[in-house]
Amino acid sequence: MFDYHVHTEFSCDCATPMARSCVAAIDAGITEIAFTDHVDHQPTDPGFGYYRTEDYFRSLDDARREFGNRLTILAGAEVDFHTDTFDAVERFIDANAARYDFIIGSVHYAANGAMIYPPLYDDRSLDDVFDPYLDEIEAAVRTGWFSTIGHIDIPKRYLPKSKRTYEPADLWERLQPVFRAMVESNVGFEINTSGIRQAPKSSMPGPAIVRWYADAGGTRITTGTDSHTERTIGAGVPLTLEMLRLCGIPNVMSFRNRVGTPVPIDRLLARSAA
Ligand SMILES: [Zn+2]
Ligand SMILES: [Zn+2]
Question: Rounded to the nearest 5 degrees, what angle is found at the Cα of 241, between the Cα atoms of 179 and 210?
Fold first, then answer.
């Protein structure tokens, strides 16, 4: 099984060294792990300027030397994308993409440089949040820079109580051009399992969006826990593999040098049961 979304001490919101996460991954039956630290581009973001590329790769080399015979360790990044910061993201990609196996493109900001956290939702309808957010996702997909899209329906995580009526079906039509862009650009999305263990108590995205993506011809899904501590490495991945299978997705993607290969879910589940 694969955990392709794990933060380390090179993210400003995480203090866990890679070695500890490698031990936890092996214990959890994870066979491939991608260390995907934040690469933030909004100047106001707490993580802006925090990521140290050279130190990250030195630490990755150390982890590979120590654990490489028991665990496949991928060079990854979670790159914050927004059309406002397009040029800065492009500079990072041009200079560094070739060094990575796997790059998540995530949108963490709405229009006007506001994070997609409360209180953004107080005076907006859900459409007011999701419409511009999904425009950004589509733009991220069309760049061709990313191996996968992170937590595609993350706005649902931060909905205030008054807006918990969120129904994925309301997004069906709005998602179609996003899926088209994904199929045309050979980019899919991750199932981010962090939503299962915290708000909103379901994966990001959940089964409905997976099913519609499959209906639109999408096949490229990755699995990641978005772990900020070693305690959650691998959490929810077996459940997610079962969910994918039920939604008509028979494979998850494995990556090397930003090239994805489908791996049958049946094979992963059989191996983890053995
Ligand atoms: Zn994120
Ligand atoms: Zn993350």
Answer: 20
Q: How far is the CA of 25 from the centre of ligand 1 (A)?
A: 20
Least confident among 44-58, 65-79, 154-168, 218-232: 154-168
Domain map (residue ranges) of the chain: 2-273
pLDDT at position 126: 79
What is the spatial distance between Cα 210 and Cα 213, in angstroms, rounded to a whole number? 5
With b for 16 or more beta-carbon neighbours within 10 A and e for fewer, the 161-172 pattern comes to eebeeeebeebe
pTM of the model: 0.96
Ligand lying closest to the C-alpha of residue 226: 2
Contact 254, 268 (CB under 8 A): no
pLDDT at 167: 84
User: For 2-273, which CATH superfamily applies?
Assistant: Metal-dependent hydrolases (3.20.20.140)
- Quote the ligand 1 centre to 273 CA distance (angstroms): 30
Mention every residue, 6+ apart, whose C-beta is less than 8 A from residue 210: 191, 221, 243, 244, 247, 249
The DSSP bridge pattern shows strands 188-192 and 148-149 to be parallel
